[in-house]
Amino acid sequence: MSDDKLDLDNIFDPEKNNQPTNELAKTESKAPTLAKGIDHYPRRTDIDPKAAKRAERQVATMFALSGLFTILFIVAYIAIPATSRISLPLFGVTSTSNLFLGTTFGLAILLIGIGAIHWAKKLMSDVEFVQERKEMRPKLEDQEAALEMARIGGAESGIGERKLIRRTLLGALGLFPLPFLVLLRDMGPAPRGELSTTAWTRGLAVVTDIAYDKIRPEDIPVGNLISAMPENILEIQHEEHTLNERGKSAIILVRMRPEEIKSQQGEGWDYQGILAFSKICTHAGCPIALYEQRTHHLLCPCHQSIFDLSDSAQAIFGPARRRLPQLPIEINNEGFIVARAGFQEPVGPSFWERS
Amino acid sequence: MASYISTFGPGPAIPAQDFIDQWVNASVAEGGEFYRTNCAQCHNFAGSGGALTDGKYAPGLMAASPLEIYEAMITGPQAMPKFSEATLTPEAKLAIIRYIEELKKQENPGGISLGRLGPVVEGLFLWTVGLGLLIGFAWWIGARVR
Q1: In chain A, positions 156-185, which contact chain B (CB-CB < 8 Å)?
Q2: Is A96 on the interface with B (CB under 8 A)?
Q3: Cβ atoms within 10 A of the Cβ of A146, count?
Q4: Per-residue burial over A53-78, b = 16 or more CB atoms within 10 Å of its CB, e = otherwise
Q5: A214 touching B, CB under 8 A?
Q6: End-to-end alpha-carbon separation of chain B, Å?
Q7: d(CA B43, CA B59)
């Protein structure tokens, strides 16, 4: 075996090893001493017995009141039915039971706290003391003993000589993290086209959200707002069991006088002043429908981005930088509004692979 | 006055009160869906109203009568867009009114409603009033006693 063999019995013998061996061990804890060099001003309660008596009465009153509120809490709990309501100025109509339970319980614990602090501040000793901080470093002998134990453990295991064991162990430990890397595959397939495409295709009818009615242009007066979806949205949701398509395909339909339209994202993409835009903000993806029919501004409630729907839905204020994609629309032979094509650019916020 | 204004051009007529009163029979669940899709973006999920651009604002709905709500939906006052009878049916509008009337009845079992404006206002209240109280107590605990 090795040369540096150790006498185990002696290492853990308290008789031999628990003697203080250095200076640190001796300065371990000091009793607090009176602080020197600080002017101590006595309080009124230190000088005037009347003031002390008054402070004592105040503390006792707070503790007594706390007890009273605890009893009131129990009374309120039993006496006030949960259905009872009370009308308070500023608060409005609220539950009587909640009001009284909360107030009594809160005051009961608050008065104990205030009383204790008042007691400490006015009556307990306020003489300044100094207490040295305890040495943070462990005693030298404890450090040495710990190192020695590690050394002994290493020597006893024979990791130095048994190369086969050492190498296979290192190999096993090196391989062990691999499953965690392999499991990263379970984060699912990387998104492909679905970030750039929506359900909208040529000929798909525009229907109102919630009621899912097809829309005729003559049903939309100037200044009107419609939250709309593609006509097959419910089938897609049923198939996919997710609301992803609803989150991507939502659009708003507005109508303004054709002469108010400053520009749009393609010639003839509107129909007599009816414009369709993605409802999803290009900043963080919030649905936007805060349409002001006089200014044609669309305000995103999340971060106050503003889009001018009369000017290609350009972002004119706020953190959004890209315009809202426009959906080109036309009228089919039954007279309903349909998409003339899908969106020409990805809807919603930016993503890495967005070109 | 209504007949004077109507000389300027046609517009939707004031709905009959008998018809508006039908809101009590509308579905509150459907009304909630229509409300959240068409109204909540400006008027808040609890009908408390909210800010628009340039100092404009959408008013709270708690003081609005069913007739006023219906009129606003078909005429689009100020910045508010119109919601035509064909694209948001009269039945849907009555359901929205029913939903708003239910909102009006909601109590505040937790105490002060803070305008039902949501977590931003609640957070602001705690950061100012709640933290202010805590700072006050901390100051008192640390203050020198005379």
Answers
A1: none
A2: no
A3: 11
A4: eebeebbeebbebbeebbebbeebee
A5: no
A6: 73
A7: 7
Q: Does the domain spanning A197-339 belong to CATH 3.40.50.1240?
A: no
Say how far apart CA A220 and CA A212 lie, in whole Å: 15
| Contact criterion met (CB below 8 Å) for B121 and B114 | yes
Chain B: nearest CA to A294, how far in angstroms?
6
What band does A23 get if pLDDT is binned at 50, 70 and 90?
very low
Determine, for residues B107 and A93 on separate chains, whether the beta-carbon distance falls below 8 Å: yes
Domains in chain B, please, with CATH?
2-106 (1.10.760), 110-146 (no CATH)
Return d(Cα A155, Cα A140) in angstroms, integer: 23
pLDDT in tens, B44-79: 999 999 889 889 999 999 999 999 999 999 999 999
* Most confidently predicted of A14-28, A60-74, A117-131: A60-74
Q: What residues does A276 pair with on adjacent strands?
A: A253
- A287: chain B residues, CB-CB within 8 Å: 41
Q: Which of A326-330, A339-343, B33-37, B115-119 has the lowest mean pLDDT?
A: B115-119
Pairing of strands A297-299, A290-292: antiparallel
Tell me the whole-structure pTM to 2 decimals. Answer: 0.74
B22-31 pLDDT, tens per residue? 999 999 999 9
Q: What is the DSSP string of A279-313?
A: SB-TTT--B--EEETTTTEEE-TTT--EEETTBTT
- The interface pTM score, or ipTM, of the predicted complex is 0.85
Any chain A CB within 8 A of the CB of B76?
Answer: yes
Give the C-alpha separation, A324 to A289, whole Å.
12
